[in-house]
Amino acid sequence: MATAWNSGNRTVINEYNMGNANTKELYDVKYPNDLPILAFLATESVSDGEWLPLHEELISNSNIQMIEILEGGHYLHWSNADNIARMTKEFISKNLNGMD
Predict the structure, then answer these.
(1) pLDDT > 70 fraction of the chain, expressed in percent and rounded
(2) Cα 69 from chain centroid?
């Protein structure tokens, strides 16, 4: 009931209406070259062949920006919490320790 009530509020409707303009504004935007990124995508999400390339286009430095594909659906944090925690700790240890 709360989801239905909140889904039609002014802010959500505005976000929906601005989708095309926001997408055009972000065309060709990439992650900053010195920003470490670890993104998790679900196999279910990348099976259409479009979602993964959209994420790959954001990468500007493959040495510190990576995408990990995990088996599952949209709610990876439910089905892969242990893997996500382990991989995140490893990523932080490798890429963020000692950064100011």
Answers:
(1) 90
(2) 11
Which residue matches tokens 């990468």? 59
> Token pair for residue 30?
């990439």
d(CA 45, CA 66): 17
Q: Which residue has the tokens 């991989």?
A: 87
Query: What's the CA angle centered on 54, arms 37 and 96, to 5 degrees?
Result: 5
Q: Where are the alpha helices (DSSP H) in 9-98?
A: 10-17, 19-25, 43-46, 51-56, 76-79, 81-95
Quote the CA–CA distance of 47 and 30 in Å, as a whole number: 23
Note whether 22 and 52 are within 8 A (CB): no
- pTM of the prediction? 0.75
DSSP 57: T
The CA distance from 41 to 27, in Å, is 21
The predicted-structure confidence for 56-69, as pLDDT tens digits, reads as follows 999 999 999 999 99
